[in-house]
Each structure stands twice: as structure tokens, then as C-alpha cells.
Amino acid sequence: MNKKAFILLLLVFYILSKSLLLNKYGIITKDGVIYACLSERFLDQGPSGLLDVTFPPLYPFSAGIGAFLLKPLYQFFPQTGKYFNSFELGGILASSFFHILLCLAVYRAGKKLYGFNVAAWASLFMLFHPLLFRFSGEVLTETIFAFLIFCGSYLMFLKDEPSFFSTFSSASCFGLSYYVKPEGIVVGILFFIVLVFQKKGFREKPLKPFLFLISLAMLSAPYVIYLSKETGQVLLSNKQNIVFYLSVKRMFPEMQSLEPTGVIAFVTAHPLHALVKLFRGLYYTVWNLPEAFFRIYFLFF
Predict the structure, then answer these.
(1) What is the pTM of this model?
(2) I need a labelling partner for 273 at 20 to 30 A (CA). Which of 71, 218, 263, 280 fits?
(3) What is the pLDDT of residues 159-206, one digit of tens each?
(4) Contact 179, 58 (CB under 8 A)
(5) Helix 183-198 to helix 262-287 angle, to the nearest 10 degrees?
(6) What angle do CA 53, 54, 57 make, to 5 degrees?
(7) Are the C-beta atoms of 95 and 139 separated by less than 8 Å?
(8) How far apart are CA 244 and CA 213, in angstroms?
(9) Residue 197: which H helix or E strand, with range?
């Protein structure tokens, strides 16, 4: 099959299946409601409307752009507003757009490293991966975060000895991911440690590690300064208290008096919350299989 035809066929099938999903299934999380409100505030107030101490600004910015682009749809098809708020649909458009970009990036990386066959199967898997496909149909940050993390990693492992431009671009991707999810800066630092140990050409030229760290720090600094100014504390994320409560205090009420602060709390709270979500997911998977099959049936039939 022609390579361009393959990509076009995938995109057409993706759009058709996504249309089916939107027609049969609709959900918006609590975080999604806030992101939609922030995107609305962005279009009303400009860039200052994106600033929030709990939710980073890059995804609401993307959702706001999506909502702006969809305005003609509501003028020509006013009945659309009965089913979707324009800012909710703008968030879904942003999530789907970055999901497609992620799949194209995987295709490009697979083709360059392993050839067309591996690239085709890898991009197909990423396009219809159940979790990614679901997240791309919701007002959530997962797809844009995954795209930036993948690009940041791919740029450094594309060659045996990454160039200065690749180093700067990679650090920029991780820096931007911090404006999507607070964990982005931690992933960037961990990736830097991996590079130092695995990339001989990276660690033997001190300017490259310095460039990576300074680029990451300079991109992350504005939001850190904003958080510090608004909260009076030096924070990487203001969500740490919420996350710590959800992951620890709910399970251990005797720890109600414990208040997490600083970088240590940030680093520990998110993995703890991830473990709690993992065990809850396993619990619901085991005990709610009938409901899961019912949802799948309802989705497609």
C-alpha cells in the first residue's frame, strides 16, 4: 500500500470512529469542567485568563483555540449546542489533534529506526489504543502530555550523538509538558539522568547537559514564579495537597493532621495517588466486568 494512502486511510477511519464515539458516549470529568471554564476565560480575558494556581495553562489554551475554530460550526448547525458545550467540544478537538500528532510522531520514529512495517503497526496501535482513544475523546491532558514526552525522548535518541539543537528541542518539550501536567518537570529531570548514564556523547560534552538543564529551568521558571507569588510558597504544583489527600488521607484518616509541603511532598504525593488509582482500577476491573461489557456494547450498538 502507498505510504501516504495508508496514513490518510488511518486518519479517515479514526475520524469516523471518533464521530461514532461522540454520538454514543459523552462524559466530562471534574478536571475537564475546570479546563473548559479556563478555556472560556482565555477567550474572554486573553492570556491572563489561563492563569490558575492548580491547573497548568497549556491545555486550556489548546482547548480555547479549538473552541474558537469551532465557532462557525455552531453558527451553521445551532442544534450542535444541544449536545456539546462549545468549550467542551474544543477540548475534545484539542485532545484528538494531539493524539493524531502523537501517532504521526510514532510513525516517523518507527519508520526512521525500523522501517515502514514497524512504523505502520506502531502508529495503528497508538491510534486505537483503548486508553489513548478514550482520553482523546475527553477534556483531559493525557494526549498532549504523551505527545510532548514522546517528542522530548525521541529527539535525544534519534542519533548516537544528539546535536545542540536536538538537546534544546528535547528540553523544550519537557519544559512545555510542565505546563500541561506538573509531573512533566520530574520526567524531564529523570530523563536527563538517563541521558547522562546512557549517552556517552552527551555526558562527554559539558555544554550539552548544561544546555538541557538551563533550557528546562528557564521554560519552567515563569510558572514556578507565578505559583510562588500567588501562594507564598516555592511550589512546583499547587495540586500536591489535593493529590496527597486523595492518595493518603482518604485511606488513613489518622493522618489528617499531616500537611505535605515542598518538593518532597510533590515527588511522593503523585506516585502514591497513581498507586491508589491503579489498585482501584484493578478492583473495578475484576468486580465490574458485566458493566464493562455493557458499556462496550452500548458504545458500538
Answers:
(1) 0.78
(2) 218
(3) 767 788 888 999 999 999 999 988 888 888 888 888 888 777 677 778
(4) yes
(5) 100
(6) 80
(7) yes
(8) 28
(9) helix 183-198
